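Format notes (please read before filing issues)

Several people have asked whether sequences and C-alpha cells are stored in separate files. They are not. Every record keeps both together, in the order shown below: the sequence lines, then the C-alpha cell lines. Line labels are part of the format and must not be stripped during preprocessing.
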Amino acid sequence: MSIDEHSDDYKKTMLQKRFLNEIEQGIRIANREIIHSHIPKLNKNSVLAFAVSIARLRAHYLDAAFSAAGTDTGEPLSAEQINSMRLHREAYEEAKEAFEALRYALEQGYVDLDMDE
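Then the structure lines:
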C-alpha cells in the first residue's frame, strides 16, 4: 500500500469519525429536546417515588406468584392464576424497563436532575 493510499484511508476514517460525532451530537440534542418536553426536571424525590412505585409492582407480582403457589394441589394453575401472575409480571417488567430508560437518559444528559431539591 502506498503512502497516498494510507493517507486516503486516514482521511476517510477521520471523515467517518467526524460524521459519527455529528450524528451523536444530533441524537443527544433531539433526545434532550423531546424528553424535556415531557419531563422538564427531575429531583431526588421524584426519582425515589418512581422507584417506590416499581417496588410496589414487584410486590404485587410476587404476591400473585405466592398466592398461586399457596394453592398448589399438584394440579396445573388455573387460567385466572396464570393471568394474574402475567398481568403483574408485565406491569413490573415494563416499569423496570422504564426506570432503566430513565437511568440511561440521566447518564446521557437527556434529562436534568435538580440536585437542590
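For reference, the curators noted about this record: The chain has three helices and two strands. Residues 1-38 form one domain.
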